[in-house]
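Deviations from the work plan: none for this task. Representative record:
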Amino acid sequence: MSKKDTITPVSDFGEFKLIKHLTENIKLKHNSTIKGVGDDAAVIEPSGKKMIITTDMLLEGIHFDLTYVPLKHLGYKAVIVNLSDVYAMNAIPKQITVSIGVSAKFSVEALKDLYDGIYMACDKYNIDLIGGDTCSSLTGLSISVTAIGEADTDKLAYRNGAKVNDLICVTGDLGGAYMGLQLLEREKMVFNSDPNMKPKFDGYDYILQRQLKPEARKDIIELFEKNKIVPTSMIDISDGLSSELLHICNQSNVSCKIYEEKIPINFATQRMANELNVEPLVSALNGGEDYELLFTVPIELHEKITELHQISIIGHISEKGEENLIITKGGTTLPIMAQGWAAFGE
Amino acid sequence: MSKKDTITPVSDFGEFKLIKHLTENIKLKHNSTIKGVGDDAAVIEPSGKKMIITTDMLLEGIHFDLTYVPLKHLGYKAVIVNLSDVYAMNAIPKQITVSIGVSAKFSVEALKDLYDGIYMACDKYNIDLIGGDTCSSLTGLSISVTAIGEADTDKLAYRNGAKVNDLICVTGDLGGAYMGLQLLEREKMVFNSDPNMKPKFDGYDYILQRQLKPEARKDIIELFEKNKIVPTSMIDISDGLSSELLHICNQSNVSCKIYEEKIPINFATQRMANELNVEPLVSALNGGEDYELLFTVPIELHEKITELHQISIIGHISEKGEENLIITKGGTTLPIMAQGWAAFGE
């Protein structure tokens, strides 16, 4: 929570003063943003392109734990997860709206921290904050973000366009965010059982950053543009590789075969997995929150893709009716199961 | 809550099956909706018009009380409050996204009721549901809706366009939704103190409907179009007339003078106010949730507006620097104060 000197209860401000306080320094970046915060609705001048809309809700205790997630990071991440969905359409996000529900425990200064993170993401990704809603909540913090973007019709990448023999590719590396979460949970348990214990985070920077300050792959969409690559299908990896792969296969009416040895896993992720006695592969397949892109391209692009170091080819698309398979390093063949983020499971 | 025979826990379904169950019967109404539910984001084909975006969050215990709000009505209202914001720009809503956070106490059948209300509003107002997010919540129900619409540039009505001498107009009548809420709260208290008491709702249909099943003024936007009326400023009345009037005056850099005798209050609202020993005027000024439109037009339109029975002229715009005043029926002059929905107050 905020470490500022002053703690101003939100009730001292009231809704309108709070909104003004949190949004008065906005400088709009896009000419297409005609009207931002401050009216019944925002107004956008559409380009000749298609408009892309996506929305995500983050709830305290479900999507984040404020005992170890700083509010500034939370604000940043709330934006990133939405931008990632826009990039996953091979589109460019331009605007967001942000709605928050806050309980009385939050101070004005704490909300300023949250919005600092939101604005930091907006600056980095060239996004206008154009509206939202601010309300009180009985219990904890709710954040709902909607992102608006645009794309050329012939560049849009849906989940349903994968074709037999297409290469299956992922960006960056997988499983890190999940391992970061396991580390945070472990240190929280240690701290809860003995508040004098100092959490041990040294040397774990990479996986902590993957969990606490994820980035969306704007650079990949720019790389596609530069290299004239249009994926046949694409999805962002928020729920783990298995679950996302099955979405693409189900919606494209195809199957897939991937290879364990090809799945990119960072050394820091592997080390943490070993420490916790977990298979690193499991964190990549079922972990989630990496916000990397999973996509397919025609096999003719093999050479071009191989030259791009940000991208790994992990397998290929097969005929519908075949099993969705992963070939392990040991040569065993296993079916891919959806064990993603079981939001309502168990 | 649901009165269905079966009660299926949400956990029996899991996220993806639940989303499928709630959205599989959607039939898209607009050609401009290229891609609805089912991908990382929705895709819209913009017309040559401006795009309008607005969003609102409804939280259990703050915006609604499930002890007396049926879920179907809640779903309906969650859509209406957003459409109302689009109409308040003199624009036509076309699409919505809906995100919900639900705790374990909700059954699949209960959520079906909620979505039945959402779809009922979509059908009545010609809206496509194009996306959203479904997640579990630790505490109660959160609903976040984003509405997308379009408008001709020269017809857009902002809050900041009111000019000196403009007529101040409102649609329908005011205070009913607030009186409906008071009635529901009273009967809840009676029921809580003696569960054998049957709530008395006979003869209160009008104010109950105003609270539980509000409508957005699509008809007024069509009336404007038909009569070639473009308001100089407009806002929807969600927080009470006082608060909305002050928004228009502050943003337009003007003041206002209105007349109590001109403020439209339904007989049923007056009767409930008398019964509860409340000034009916107070429910109109400070009540909120009527979702009527407050707007200004040039004085030259006086005759035209007078002919439209859905609209009341309640006063006029005066020079900035003058006080914002209401002249009571008794001839007393009182300043208009913002006592709207104090979301964080007290």
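Chain B has ten helices and 13 strands.
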